[in-house]
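In this supplementary section we document a worked example of the pipeline. Step one takes a protein sequence of length 138 as its only input; no multiple sequence alignment statistics are reported here. Step two produces a three-dimensional model, which step three serialises into structure tokens for compact storage. The input and output of this example are shown verbatim.
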Amino acid sequence: MYKRIYFIALVQRTLYLFNKEGKIVLPVEIKNMEALMFLTVKAGVKGNSPHFYMFVKALLEYFGAKVVSVNLLRCENSLFCAELNLIVYKKHVKMTMNFVDAFVISRLFDAPLYADHKVLDDRGIRVSKEILRDALQE
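The serialised model returned by step three reads:
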């Protein structure tokens, strides 16, 4: 079962995603330098920067593909994998790829993010009032 997650922050080399329903923060380390550079340059996400991701976006748009969503599937050896869900020529197409790459594509197309509940349970940090209070007191 998938749960909706939201991007909340990029701090140094880590993306922070949040599941409102379970109050879970999911940190994802970015190892791909191209993705990190793309995400840290705000103009790169909205502008016409000559990044690989802009090429991917142009290619998907050329073929009339619509990015429906990105599902964070599993975690192996600290690597998050994702399923990019597309509609191409009225057919549903699923592509498995590195989560960070899928995340960047989701940002380019304003597509929603989802995470498998097992990933949230295994790798997420459940946020509580006590955790926040203790963190703020230090």
